[in-house]
Design goal:
By secondary structure, the chain is mainly alpha-helical. It has one domain (about 10-95). Helix content is about 20%, strand content about 5%. The chain has a two-stranded antiparallel ribbon. The longest helix is centred in the N-terminal third of the chain and has 10 residues, at about 20-25. The chain is globular, with a radius of gyration of 16 Å.
Length: about 110
């Protein structure tokens, strides 16, 4: 996303219409998810599939596989995109762990 100029209203210019959002998701440069509610949410980054204890502790969850190119993932409120700022708060930047596999893992083994 380094090509977006600071101060740009990226939200209304490039990330409002379904076809715009779909294009970015398919490109893999930015995505969003809507919880449909206010409140606080926990983000956990795991290697591989979550253990049973994690699934029991968080029965309502969103799972997303990430492949990071560029070294970091940044999290922000959707409205941050209406005034693009490259000076991202460092407490909202995560370095990604090495994934156990590339792509979607097989759910079965061949005999």
């Amino acid at each position: 996303m380094g090509n977006v100029a600071p101060g740009t209203n990226f939200l209304t210019e490039e990330f409002t219409q379904p076809d715009q959002i779909a294009a970015h998701i398919k490109k893999g440069d930015i995505t969003a998810f809507c919880t449909g509610t206010g409140g606080d949410f926990d983000l956990h980054f795991l290697t591989g599939y979550p253990f049973a204890e994690v699934l029991q502790a968080y029965p309502v969850s969103i799972r997303l596989g990430l492949h990071v190119q560029g070294g970091s993932v940044q999290f922000c409120d959707l409205f941050w995109l209406s005034n693009w700022n490259t000076d991202f708060p460092q407490d909202q930047v995560d370095a990604m762990r090495e994934l156990s596999w590339t792509g979607v893992p097989y759910l079965f083994t061949e005999d």
